[in-house]
Design a protein that fits this description.
Layout lengths: L12 H4 L4 E6 L6 H15 L3 E6 L4 H8 L3 E4 L8 H13 L4 E4 L2 H14 L3 E5 L9 H10 L2 E4 L2 H9 L7 E3 L15 H7 L7 E6 L8 H13 L10 E6 L5 H10 L6 E5 L4 H7 L2 E4 L8 H8 L4 E4 L2 H6 L6 E4 L4 H12 L2 H18 L2 H22 L4
Parallel strand pairs: 1-2, 1-4, 2-3, 4-5, 5-6, 6-7, 8-9, 8-11, 9-10, 11-12, 12-13
Helix pairs in contact: 2-16, 4-5, 5-6, 8-11, 9-14, 12-15
């Protein structure tokens, strides 16, 4: 397929208040924190009068939720990074739908959508959400070197990884992930859900909201709870606690076995995958994120917005989002002793939990509100379109 000559964009459309058409490419079958950010962006752009075209996999949650939310959905198979049929389909869609800009949301989207955007003569940007090394292989050099005009990192840490991976400084932009506090209003009273989960009124509820993968470090949390519990006796009058684990994944069996071996069975509730994060956050007292790696950590933002302290690892974007001893407590990753000490401190100090929770709510409102993210992307789109217009031949 021969690349189309660059279409000269109407760079002033957004500035005039005229809507532009943005194609968002997200090939994920599931729906996690990254997809939540995509949909917050879609909602915000629609409210500003822009048209969104969501390109995703058939049968994916993005496709079903996109249609249910009233977005235009283009479903096509994107099974691997070099699927030529998907590239042709995307390029044809970008041309036929008069797309002004392509926004790539995953690594696979970078490859397929980036090449398709080039063939269609449409400028593209990408957002990187993973906390991990940007490898300098041929495909990444192509994507970040010539296929995209900007590379967005969701935290300063992710932006630094882009730099370390060879991405040009003038292409890198930081736009943090955000939350919409209005979506975190619980649908039922705190006490009702706590009773349903078998919690007593005086139990401190620790909550994990995560996929059950090694990256999330839940095994480290169980080890820390085991060590902490061994040092506490009923005679101490120590605060009682329960750990709620909401999520599913490859580590489910191993975590269950670890809990049984440690004698923590009666202290844990494996809840499986849940869609009631707002209710769970209202029912809990502390959110635990003992991650080994984290791009930013949407659950941490949600917890702070709901007024709950975060106990997390000092890793990646999580260390950028959570302010230690102000909105939560951060410990070195995989440090069982430090995590056990922080757990003890939070369990036994209710005023500390309230102070951290109140500060977290204000912190999110100032720095991680979804309106800020939407405004930042709208400004970035405008900047990219103006740049593309300057570099495109006049007709």
């Amino acid at each position: 397929m021969t690349p189309a000559p660059p279409r000269r964009p109407d760079a002033n459309a957004a500035a005039r208040g005229d809507g532009i058409t943005v194609a968002h490419v997200d090939p994920e079958l599931g729906f996690s924190g990254g997809e939540l950010q995509v949909f917050l962006l879609l909602d915000g752009l629609r409210a500003r009068g822009h048209r969104n075209l969501l390109c995703c996999q058939p049968g994916s949650e993005c496709a079903s939720r996109g249609r249910a939310s009233g977005f235009e959905v283009q479903a096509l198979a994107m099974r691997n990074d070099l699927q030529l049929g998907a590239v042709r389909h995307l390029a044809r869609t970008f041309r036929d739908e008069h797309v002004d800009l392509v926004h790539l949301h995953t690594g696979r989207a970078n490859a397929l959508g980036g090449i398709a955007a080039r063939l269609a003569g449409v400028p593209a940007i990408t957002t990187r959400r993973m906390d991990g090394r940007v490898r300098r292989h041929l495909l990444n050099r192509l994507v970040y070197g010539s296929l995209v005009r900007r590379a967005v990192g969701i935290s300063p840490t992710v932006a630094q990884q882009l730099r370390a991976g060879g991405v040009a400084e003038d292409k890198i932009v930081v736009i943090p992930s955000t939350v919409d506090p209005d979506t975190l209003t619980p649908s039922r009273p705190r006490d009702a859900l706590r009773a349903e989960l078998g919690l007593r009124p005086d139990d401190v509820a620790l909550l994990v909201l995560a996929s059950l993968s090694r990256r999330k470090g839940i095994d480290v949390l169980l080890s820390a709870l085991t060590r902490m519990q061994a040092a506490r006796t009923p005679a101490d009058g120590a605060t009682s606690w329960v750990l709620l684990i909401a999520g599913d994944g490859d580590e489910r069996e191993a975590l269950g076995a670890q809990a049984r071996a440690a004698g923590l069975d009666d202290k844990l509730r494996f809840l499986g995958r849940r869609d009631d994060a707002a209710d769970l956050l209202a029912a809990c007292d502390v959110l635990c994120m003992p991650s080994r790696r984290e791009g930013l950590g949407i659950a941490a933002l949600q917890a702070m917005a709901a007024g709950r302290p975060v106990l997390g690892s000092h890793v990646g974007g999580l260390a950028d989002a959570v302010v230690h001893d102000h909105t939560g407590l951060l410990v070195p990753p995989e440090d069982v002793d430090a995590l056990a000490a922080a757990l003890t401190r939070l369990l036994d100090d209710a005023p500390l939990r309230r102070r951290l929770g109140d500060a977290g709510r204000a912190h999110v409102d100032r720095n991680f509100h979804h309106h800020q993210m939407v405004a930042a992307y709208a400004a970035l789109y405008q900047d990219v379109l103006e740049e593309a217009a300057r570099k495109s031949p006049r007709k």
